[in-house]
Amino acid sequence: MAEENSQNEEFERQPVPQKSWKDWRSFLGMYAGEHAAGTEFVIGPLFLTTGVSAFDLIVGLIVGNLLAVLCWRFLTAEIAVKNRLTLYFQLEKICGKGLVKFYNVANGVLFCFLAGSMFTVSATAVGIPFSMEMPKLTDTMPNGLTWILIVLVLGAITTWIAVKGYQMVSKAANWMSPVIILGFLIGGFVALKQLGVSSFGEFWDIWGEGGEPFPGQIKYTFWHVAIWSWFANAAMHVGMSDLSVFRYAKSPKSGWTTAAGMYVGHFMAWIAAALLYSVYLQSTEAQAMLAAGEAPSVAPGPLAYSAIGVFGVLVVLLAGWTTANPTIYRAGLAFQTLFPNMKTSWATILAGGIATVAGIFPAFAMKLLDFVAVYGFILAPVGAIIFFDEYLSKKWNLIPRFAEAKGLNVNWAVMLAWAVAVIAFYTYSVSTGTFLSFLTLPAWLSCGVLFLLLSKWTQKGHS
C-alpha cells in the first residue's frame, strides 16, 4: 500500500524526489500526442483563410516552432529541474495564496473556452449522419437545435469521463494519439492526391503566393505565422505552466522533446488540415460561397470524411475528445482552489458545464487563432514574474519568493505588474489594430521589469 501511495503521489507542495525523476522518453510521446489534437483540425484551415503564401507558412512555422522549443528548453525546463515545483506552488511562494486563486480562475475559464471549441470540432463529425448544417467561419451563434443537442450530449459524455479521473483520461489519450497522428498524415497525402499534387514543386505552385484573406480575416505574412506559432503555447513555455511537467525530468535537456509536438502537431498536422480545406475550397459549394462574398465553413468532420471516410470522422472525434477531456480536468482543479472543500468531481462538473455552454457558440472554434493568441497573451506575463524572481531578485537586492518569506496573502507587486502589462498592451492592440501576438513578448518583458520596480517599492515596508 505504501508503494502504491508513493506511485500516486503528485508532490503538489514539495520538490519531486529523485526516485520519481523520468528520462526524456517519458516526455517525447506525451508532447507528440498533446499537440496533434482537435485544435489542429481548426488552426490549419484557418491559416489558409488568411491568404498566407506557401513560403510564409512553411518557413514561418519552422522558425516559430523552433523559438517555442528553445523557450521550453532554456527557460521552462531549466527552472523546472532547478526547483522541481509545480507552477502553482512556485507562484504561491512569490505572489501569495490569494493571488494564486485569482490566477487559477483566469486559467480555468480560458481552459473551459478551449475545451468548448473542441466540442465544436467533435460536433462537426457527429453531425454528418444527421445532415446537419455546419457552422460557417463567420458564425458566432448556434445555427440550429440539432447543433445544440449534439454539443450538449458531447459535453455531458466528456465531462462524465473527466470526472472519472485524469489517470484514465491520460492513458486513453496516449493510446489514441498514434491513431490521430496517422489520420492527419493519411488525410494530408489523400488531399495532395485529390489536388493533383505529385511533387513538392507542384505543391508550392498550387499554394503559391497565397491570396486575399477571407471575409473577416486579416492577411498573414511570414511574421504573423512565425510569431503566432511561437506564442501559440506561450502559457506553457514563457508562461511557465509546464514547470509542472518538467519538474519530473532528470535533465533540462528533456525540454528538447517538445520538438516532437511542434513539428508533428504544429507543422505536419496544421499543413495536413490546411490541405484538406484546400480540397473543400475547390468544391461547387465553397466556390458559390466565395462568389457571394461569404467565408466557407471550416468544419473538421466533413473535411476529414471527404478525404478518408469513416476513419476521418473517428479521428476528428478522438482528436476533440483527447483535447477536451484533460482540459476540463485541469480547469476543474483550477476552480477547486476557490472552494477547497469542494470535491474534485463537482469542480470538474462545473468546468464541464461552462465548457459545454461555450461549445454551443461556434465563435470560439471559428476564431481559434484569435482566442489562442489572447489565451497566451494573458497568461504568459506570469511566467516573466517567475523568471525575473528566480534570476534577478537577488541582483536587485530583493527578497526572492517574497510572499512566502513574509507570509503575504497577496503580493501587490505581482498583481499590479501583471494587470498593467496585460491591460496596457491589450488596449494598444485594440486601439491600433496591432496583431496581438506581436505584443506578447513586449508584455512579458514589461511585466518582469515592472515586477522588479514595484518590488523595490513594496518590499521597503517589510525589510
From TrEMBL:
Entry keyword set: Membrane, Transmembrane, Transmembrane helix
Organism: Jiulongibacter sediminis
One annotated GO molecular function: cytosine transmembrane transporter activity
Gene Ontology CC annotation, any one: plasma membrane
Protein name: Membrane protein
Domain of life: Bacteria
Ranges that cross the membrane: 54-75, 109-132, 144-163, 175-200, 220-239, 260-283, 303-324, 345-365, 371-388, 409-428, 434-454
